[in-house]
Specification:
Self-associates forming complexes of several hundred monomers. Pfam families: Myb_DNA-bind_5. InterPro entries: Myb_DNA-bind_5. By secondary structure, the chain is an all-alpha fold. It has four helices and no strands. The protein has helices spanning about 15-25, 30, 40-60, 65-80.
């Protein structure tokens, strides 16, 4: 039988949280926008997203956002700017 698993939803981002996300990503831009795909770089990027998520959630007004959610939101913002 097919058991559908609902995806985990989080609260919607408000404008001030989007600005906070962009500011945090700009601080770590050299690491997060690195084009390398080796294991060391991937590990550093993962740790950086974890640090970024902790900083975001400590300053967030709206609720908890996972690093996966923040990364997805940032990628979506980048696509929207193109």
């Amino acid at each position: 039988m097919n058991s559908k698993v609902k995806r985990e939803r989080s609260t919607n981002c408000i404008a001030s949280e989007l600005e906070l996300l962009v500011d945090l990503v700009v601080r770590h831009n050299k690491i997060l926008e690195n084009k390398k795909t080796d294991a060391v770089t991937a590990n550093v990027k993962s740790k950086t997203w974890d640090i970024l998520a902790k900083a975001f959630n400590s300053n967030s007004l709206n609720g908890f956002q996972s690093e996966k959610c923040l990364k997805s939101k940032y990628e979506h913002l980048k696509k929207g700017c193109r």
